[in-house]
Amino acid sequence: MAESGRTSRASLVEAATEWLGLKPDELSLVGLLFLGFFFTVGAISTGRTLRDSLFLAHFDKGSLSWVYLLQALVVASVSLGYARVADLVRKDRMAAGCAALFAMVLIAIFFGLPHAGAPLIAVLYVFVEVLASLSVIQFWNLAGELFTPREAKRLFGLVGAGGTISATLMGVVQGAWARNWGSASLLILCSGLILTT
Q1: Going by C-beta distance under 8 Å and a sequence separation of 6 or more, which residues neighbour residue 33?
Q2: Sign of CA dihedral 82, 87, 92, 94
Q3: If you ran DSSP here, which 8-state letter would residue 89 be given?
């Protein structure tokens, strides 16, 4: 009985591999990267949803132009600093370290929101964009090291589909989460998602 279960599972994996146009040894790595990008986009989507709703609840729309300018300056500065450090550290370690740092900052903001209010919301607005920029850059840099250019051309569409599916599903997840635990708790969801990348 167990043997037939193993055989049917193996034939299912074989059929999926063939249908997706993968070589047998590529399925697990592509699957992990698919999930990694799913969680990366999920974290970005969750962070942006929360920061937009909190910002518009505490500031008027005219303030957006100033925060966009600040966001651009901070993201450019952080990206320059990141580029200098990134060449000195292994990409997988850099990604893990940044994910841990991002999660800690998100949790600190969650606990700080009831006390700091509007200024911290402005910080969150900018921080989420830093998280988004660096997370996507790190993900594709790491993925680029795992495949040859020819393999990347063939496989990155499948990996990128993880982000598309995440963007579609996260709206439902975020709505249910916010209804059950409050909108600010989306920061906890975002930190959990970024840690799984």
Answers
A1: 143, 146, 159, 162
A2: negative
A3: S
Q: Are 33 and 143 spatial neighbours (Cβ–Cβ below 8 Å)?
A: yes
Share in percent of the chain as helix, strand, coil (round to 5): 90, 0, 10
Q: How many helices (H) and strands (E) does the chain have?
A: 7, 0
> pLDDT tens digits, residue range 82-114?
988 888 888 889 999 999 999 999 999 999 999
CA gap 175, 1 in Å, rounded: 43
60: DSSP letter = -
Chain centroid to CA 156: how far? Answer: 16
135 Cβ neighbours under 8 A, 6+ residues apart: 40, 43, 44, 98, 99, 102, 194, 197
The CA distances from residue 115 to 18, 55, 108, 121, in Å, are 55, 16, 11, 11
Closest alpha carbon to 27 in 12, 38, 16: 16
Q: What is the pTM of this model?
A: 0.87
